Amino acid sequence: MISFVHLHRSKLLPVLFAAVCCTAESRGQAPVSDSPAVRSLWKKPAHFPAGADSLRFSTVRELPYTYTGQLLDGRIAGVSVMRASGEPGVAPMPVIRGLSMPLGQAADQYANRPLYVVNGIPLIRNDHPYALALKDHDFTDIGSGIDVAELIDMENVQELHVLRGPEAVAMYGTRAASGAIVITTRNPELGRYHLGLNVYGGVAAKPQVKTLNGYYQRDFLLPFYRQYANSNQWTNFPVYLADSTQKVYFGPANWDDLYYKNAIQHGVGLNITGGSQRANFRFGVGEHTENGVADATSLKKYNVFYDMNIIPVEGLNIHTYIQMFTARRDRNRSLTERLAEEEYITDQQSPLSPNKAYLGNYYGILNEGTERNIANSIQGMLDIGIRLYKGLEFHSQFSIDYNDNDRDLFVPAALNDNNSFNSYFTGVSRRVRMNNYLTWDKAFRGGHQFSFQLGQSMEEDQMKYDYIRGWRGPSDFIKIIQVDPSDNEWVTHEKSLVYTFKDFMKQRTFSFYGNVGYTFNRLNVLLSLRNDGTSLFGNGYWWAFSPVVSAGYDVKKAGEGSGAVRSLKLQANIGRTAVMPSADYFGYGPYFTVDAGFAGAMKVSTYNSMATLNMPFTRGYTGGGIRWPYNDHLDFGMQMGLFRNWNIELNLYTRTGRNLLAQVPVDAAYGFSSKTINGMDVNNKGIELQLQGKLPLTSSLTWTTSLALAYNTNKVLTLPYNSGKDLSHTGGRTSIEYGIRHLETGRPMDQYWLLQNEGIYRTDDDVPTVNGKKMTYNGIALKAGDPRWKDVNGDGAITDADRVMEGRTMAPLRGGWNNTLQYRKWTMDLSFSFAAGNHLLNGDAANRFNFANREGVSSLDGVKEITFWQSNTNLDKYPRYNPWSLVNPYQTNQDLWLEKASWLKLQAFTLRHELAGYGFVKKTGLRKLQVYATAMNLFTLTPYKGGDPSLMSFTGIHYGVTQPLPRTFTIGINADL
Amino acid sequence: MKNYKLKISFWMLAGLLLTGACRTKLDVAPSHLVPEKNMWTTKNDARAAVFAGYALLRSALADNNAWLAYGELRAGDFTGVSRGDLAAITGNQLTASFTSLDQWSNWRRFYAVIYQANLCLEKLATVNKNDFRYTPEEMKVDLAHCRFLRSMAYFYLVRIWGDVPLMKMAVSGDFVPVARTPQAEVLAFAEQDALAAAEGLPWRYDQQSPELLSQYWGQPAAFWQGVVAAKAPAYVLLAHIAAWKGDYLTTDKYTRMVLDNRVKGGYNLVPTSTLTSATGTFTGQADNIIFAMPFNKNYQESSASGHIEEWALAQPFIAKPQPDIFISNDSILSIFTEKNDERFRVTESGSGAGTYFTGFGNPVPLFSKIRLLSVSGADPLRSYQSAIVVFRYEELVLLRAEALMFLGKSAESLLQLNAVRGQRGIGDYTGNAAGLSNAILQERRRELLGEGWRWFDLVRFEQLPRYSRFSAADVAAGAQYWPVSKSLLGAGSAITQNKFWQ
Q1: Do the Cβ atoms of A506 and B171 come within 8 Å?
Q2: Is the pTM of this model over 0.90?
Q3: What is the pLDDT of residues A641-666, one digit of tens each?
Q4: What's the CATH code of the domain at A12?
Q5: Phi and psi (nearest 5°) for A342?
Q6: Do B52 and A314 count as a contact with CB atoms less than 8 A apart?
Q7: What DSSP string runs through A697-718?
Q8: Any CB–CB contact under 8 A between B390 and chain A?
Q9: How close is the nearest chain A Cα to the Cα of B252, in Å?
Q10: Does A595 map to a domain?
Q11: What is B40-200's CATH topology?
Q12: Where in chain B is the domain with CATH 1.25.40.890?
């Protein structure tokens, strides 16, 4: 529930003037000149709601979370969290109020990410889609993969607000089109110096897995060979499974001893705060280490922050905030990721051994190589607030956000056909931001109150990367690349085997914004107008105007009258907000670039050494006239207080994305694979419910419970008409292929497009004959051993026309249930989160059955991770088709693999005991001494039996190779001196 | 008082900040793309655009080894080892459900070449106007290159798919779906292009030809030999277009023109050792190369894919236990039937000798004719730099033999055939005139094995029913062509599937 009118704003007035003018809620409060709310006002430079979309930190501070997404999951209605893996270095991605754009390829995730704002600084990302364009395979980040915006320092956060509707853009600009997560750090405390300490340590338990070895695989494959293979196919029976006396594959399947381990987690946070009204500060250092239970992964973060406020002259406030951290990631040793990075596929006929004696050799060689993944980040802000006249204030904020993202990789020769591989990546992002605004609060007689804000901000972003890779170094001891370009002499590598890439992007954004708030009696209205211009668009299309109107009406205020309903407030938001695109390929019209590569050599840029520039045939054509896409919002909300201790908030929203940029296919006779145009419309609508209540069970036992529930449904309204008609909303295609997805108007964007599987044809005669011809699949006649697919349109041929849209990748119903039980000095928190109505495709099973096209092939399809030797799904329930059939019987996109993926998790359990009242503690002078124990990810209930359904990539296909979320137990102490 | 001044100064500062910010523009020039308005302004833009056309043609042929899929694998000389998609091609099941088959059925990459060529043809004049250093002479040669590229692209398109859309101009933005044009019309258009190219290109880039008296982009003749279009490749293309249509009179004319002027172009037959050596024909620059698309490692253009070595080589050459394609022992023996063939022969002891194969007699012998690895030494990286040889001198001689044979001039045809046979050690053809056609076909098969010609030869010689699973009726229905990819047949498309593949 979002309310624009603001309360914090009017708290400022009493502070500055000791004048009497309050809004309804602050009436009765004595003006306080040093209230924490005031001092933190500069951190939230615009109007700010204190509604239920914020997180109560008291219940979560002890959880050893690394990422904001972990914190939001199940605690705030309307936020779904997508996480591809439980590995510590892989960040979750919060999605607010459903998908803003369909996820057809990895780069589309950028359009769905919310904006992170820390103390008013919108954070710049350290990864960028232009670096993804460099690789043949886009499923991993080219850099360290550490998402610096997602990292959160639990110790330092005071408040966290999630802005879900149009107010996100009204306050923080068009980058917040998919919502904003606003983090406010803790304020300095006045008075004598206080020391705060938080230490925790714990262990994550390794999962129990069922391992397999060659016997299993051989027994799995043999029935297929016996039933269907011809002599040629028998000769291609996997060589590694041929000899069962070999211990390599037929020995004990104890690889999990090397792969999974119990992992230590620990963290320390130390801060010191103090000062007077005129000058106060807060300084802290911290460390947070999360070790993964699988594959020797970890994420270590070290951070420092400094928050200082000075009032040198009455009416002049200077605030500074600096935060620095460095994160190091030990990355997974996944073969697919490594080979995709190298872009060199070694021979895959002998997979990794399930026997730890042999696997140990492989890891030993890998350890002789190097892998360093580092992300560094610095944010600094200076805010100057000047009280000019009565009610008139001027703020000027200057901030710098700098990130860098480094990855060094050295793969020893023994793993690469005796050719070592070396690569370096350095990416740097920097945002310099200047935000100036004027606020004026004025109260008129009769109880009319106005507050105005007028502001301007300018941002300049620069992003660049350098990437160099080379093969065939002189030895495994030399892990650097040194080439002497002046002559043909090589220093370490042969010149022809070293490839270098670099790119640079600069973007400027200007914003002019103004708000007018009006409060009268029970009514408050806010009008926000914003004009944003960015250099991403071509000349003439720079500016986008975003108006938002918010109105609230207090039907019944707390304290008025009596009855079950304690208070009732109704609210509505309407707005149109612009959406900033994530890359600069669209705004410059038709362009020329390097795009003349081919499979396996996508970045070849020359012909016989002559540099080439051509139109982006593979990337897609962009015409002139690309405009800002925008969202239309309509929110209705109700905040109701029931009885004494219950609060209900209900939000109904609809968000329509209009004119979204989509890549539509183009007739191949023009040479382009696609074309980017405006014209896609999608709609998200839903209900968010947040229910909170406090039940005093006995005199000393209280139970506080909170339920956050969100139901979201989305729909593609219009697809762009790609034959020249500009921005047509009336005509257009009813379906397009959008990356890996198939989109149809009138249907959700995250559905699967599947053939319906109805069994198997046992004999050739079982295949039906239609119009005198046997049924075919894409022109190939179906035979015995082929799947029985449903011929939806009855034309005697199974084609794409017989595919139906089924299932949902994103769960329509998502939420959490959080409980706190308090008994005297003991507190216990219990958090559940759940998702219902979503599905996934069991890609692990599909890949195992599709061995005929995957076994031993020299491409990423043929790669078997070590988790191949782990049993995930029960494979007995699937029919036995002829795997060599040309109709691809085990293809992933059929409903044979579609499974329900709803889940319920016990996310966190915390037990806290406050020791401050005890005698011995009083002697030490500690203000607060708390010990706590937490347990995370205790259990998951789900009908899906192939792993954790909440860990899935954007494709919606679950491969079972991702690291699980382990059960983690920690204990800690929180002390305040 | 002090406070007041402070306030004023802050007001001014604020004002300054606000105005200063506005002066900076939102017009930021991008650094990783060249917007259209900045293109076609300097001489280097012309160079970049023309060579992009070459790079795009190379990519169209090299993408997943497409040129081998189109020209070599369908003919059945090669057998797949374990890969399902390669087995599907050798068995001519071209609609089987494989991603690679879908990509090979998609003609988009060839049309990228055509679009780029069309664009250059329109815009090179702009460069000439904008940059005085780009002389009209150079512009004429570049225009001829573009016409050659367009002609080559259409030549491939027609041979692979039959009737294809005819795009004569670069279109901006409004991509209206285009229907197929009958191949006769497309070939006529390609012929015009090739004629114009032949007229505008020099024999050699040695500053002797009247078409280009200055150095081409500042590089000597040896730099350009064989890797960009010249007069000879244009004539050979014309000869082939005519042969595809069955017009052997024209083929005769153009092949003779090239043979008569071979000294001007610097072409010659080469011995077998040069053909298969690491510094020979398949570098893309040798005496017998008329036109090839190179992948020179020194220019960082070598790659793991786009070469026959990716499929045909295995141990002991690279760290791969088995190749993806091979020619079975029986096939080898049926292809190389002549004695003393330097390419392959069976010695008295029964083992194989010659430069084409390694490991004859093993269950999976290796086709090692083309073996240009990017690195030398032990444990080579799986990266290759063999060129895609489009036209070479021996092929031209055999084409002339074919043309003369079809025109009934057996004696002259025999002369040409024996020239190539002599180079390979098998001596003159001793059969009768009736068997000449087959002899030429067989010689082409041997000489051009692994170079992407076989399927098209079978079409020209009308021998498909004999060497593939198609009957004459199938061929009449269009079995010789490839099906069109599913993605081209979507809603709103004006393309229909080839009749045979429906």
Answers
A1: no
A2: yes
A3: 988 889 999 999 999 999 999 888 88
A4: 2.40.170.20
A5: -75, -25
A6: no
A7: -SSSEEEEEEEEEEEEEEEEEE
A8: no
A9: 32
A10: no
A11: 1.25.40
A12: 40-200
